[in-house]
Amino acid sequence: MNVIQSAPSQDSQQMLNSLKESVNKALVQKQKLGQYAVFWTNNQLLLEGDDAPSHLNHTESSINLDQR
Fold this sequence. Notes:
The protein is an alpha+beta fold.
């Protein structure tokens, strides 16, 4: 598969910026409500927040896609 890297169009950049802003607003709202958030980083599931399930430690709550 050929992948061509180029700068996004102005419309695409506006959409991306809008999505980022919406996600940031949702995360701030969850934090204010005391709710935990779920992130995907470095091929692992990460639970962050004061009310994140305490019975799951980082290793148990992680999913490594490289093991498939």
